Amino acid sequence: DAKTTQPTSMDCAEGRAANLPCNHSTISGNEYVYWYRQIHSQGPQYIIHGLKNNETNEMASLIITEDRKSSTLILPHATLRDTAVYYCIVRVVGFQKLVFGTGTRLLVSP
Amino acid sequence: GAVVSQHPSWVICKSGTSVKIECRSLDFQATTMFWYRQFPKQSLMLMATSNEGSKATYEQGVEKDKFLINHASLTLSTLTVTSAHPEDSSFYICSASPGLENTGELFFGEGSRLTVL
Known about the structure:
The complex is a heterodimer. The N and C termini of chain A lie far apart (37 Å). In chain A, β5 and β6 (61-64) form a beta hairpin. Chain A has strands at residues 9-13, 18-23, 31-38, 45-50, 55-56, 61-64, 70-75, 84-92, 104-109. By secondary structure, chain A is an all-beta fold. Chain A is 0% helix and 47% strand. Chain B has strands at 4-7, 10-13, 19-25, 32-38, 45-51, 57-58, 67-73, 76-81, 90-96, 107-108, 112-116. Chain B contains no helices and eleven strands. In chain B, 32% of the residues are buried. Chain B starts with a strand and ends with a strand. Classes of the chains: A mainly beta, B mainly beta.
């Protein structure tokens, strides 16, 4: 799997948008960008994924640059319960295993 | 989304004993499941890929004789930590996918925290 680079930690005020960046400059054409998060002492939770188009669901939005070398996960209105480690992962669909990097520790404060 | 359940959620055992952790896909069949280990303040590390009806594939550096994996059915995979030692204390997490025909999204269990005394 292509390697991703994420900031170690970020802070966000409750109610504001949280924008989490991810660099994946060596991504291949058939690799998707996946985002998962892990709340303390729980298993990872799927958030969103995309190939090249921007995606939105009830949890977040995913913005992928045109060259696909980076992406941003957007939590539009962060809440305290969004405090977690967020992992950006790239992989080929059909090769099921996920290889986790170090992720970004997001702290949402009142 | 699909549900993956692990049991037990936490276990404490004596050094030298063996511990079995179960991973079940509750509402879908999973031909492949994955086992991860996570030490405090670290990321998840993939240990092995569990294939139904065949031998598991272990990642480099993971001892297959110490971490026994059995995937006897399409909804159950087990991880047995044999002759556990304190350094095996960790958070063990499994994941499974409903299949290749969808987006390939993986669902994760709640994790099992093992403490070896």
